[in-house]
Amino acid sequence: MEKYIERASQLHRIMSNPVSKKAKEAGELSLTAKGRVLERYNELNYGIYKNIDNKFTLKGTQLEDESILLFKKVFGEFSLFKNEKNFKNEYFTGTPDLITDDLVIDIKTKYSLDGFQKMYYNQKPVDKAYIYQIQCYMHLLGLKRGMIAFCLTNNSEEGIVKEIQSQIYKSDKISYTDSEYLQIEEKVRKEQTFDYLPDNKRVKMIFVDYNEDLIVQMKERIKQCDKYYKWIDTYVCDNLEKFFVLLAV
């Protein structure tokens, strides 16, 4: 059976700790981690990938190229091109966004002005999920420095229309006049486009140094997940065998 290998973007889920004191003391995986291992089992064995898209992840996926272009424009790095190569070792797999000789860069597209400003003015700590991801990229590439670049890119027309529909759906009103609809549209478009800001205030970069201790912790958690992964497979096989025995009776 194939060894359990985790994607960089999902490491934060298996690195979560159990809620109960008893589970922590016993060194058990958290329910979140177990759920992720089960998802990974379905990915690797059946090709079934859980759809976790929401308006935040959808914008990040759809506008990744625009965010990369904004980043290159602000920092004059026009020689950089989006990396399409997947890197993999016995623990991790991932596809970094941008790679230089001594730096790996992960692009994050923020959804709203408020969310971006909290990051821009350091009011909010960097999400652990991003730290695990960039550490993984550095490890896979053998680099000692990484960067997380947060970009405030205009939403797509599709995203704007969906947000307008969402705000209308959440309202208690049954119908809207043309004037009221236009007010909602104007409000959403103002919230979802940011051309009134200079480009240099739409990109925030945070440098991250390689942390070997964290990599060791991540590898240990991968080993723990691998045991649970194999248990899932054994459980499935055992129960299928019992099922066929019952059919034969």
Quick synopsis:
Helix content is 53%, strand content 12%.
Structural write-up:
- It contains ten helices and seven strands.
- The protein has helices at 11-14, 21-25, 31-46, 55-62, 64-75, 113-120, 128-141, 157-170, 178-192, 212-248, and strands at 6-7, 87-88, 92-94, 98-99, 104-109, 145-151, 203-209.
- A hairpin with a 3-residue loop joins strand 2 and strand 3 (92-94).
- Helix 3 packs across helix 10 (212-248).
- It starts with 5 loop residues before the first strand and ends with a helix.
- Mean pLDDT is 90; it is low at 243-249.
Based on the model shown, name its key terms:
alpha/beta, 249 residues, four-stranded mixed β-sheet, 53% helix
Structural class from helices and strands?
alpha/beta
Topology as H/E string?
EHHHHHEEEEHHEHHEH
Count of strand segments: 7
How many DSSP helices? 10
Shape: globular
Query: Major beta sheet, specifics?
Result: 4 strands, mixed
Cα-atom radius of gyration: 22 Å
**Unreliable parts:** 243-249
Mean residue pLDDT: 90
Q: Span from first to last CA? A: 30 Å
Which percent bin holds the helix content? 40-55%
Spatial order of the strands forming the largest sheet: 4-5-6-7
In terms of DSSP E residues, the strand content is 5-15%
Indicate the topology.
Layout: E1 6-7, H1 11-14, H2 21-25, H3 31-46, H4 55-62, H5 64-75, E2 87-88, E3 92-94, E4 98-99, E5 104-109, H6 113-120, H7 128-141, E6 145-151, H8 157-170, H9 178-192, E7 203-209, H10 212-248
Parallel strand pairs: 1-3, 5-6
Antiparallel strand pairs: 2-3, 4-5, 6-7
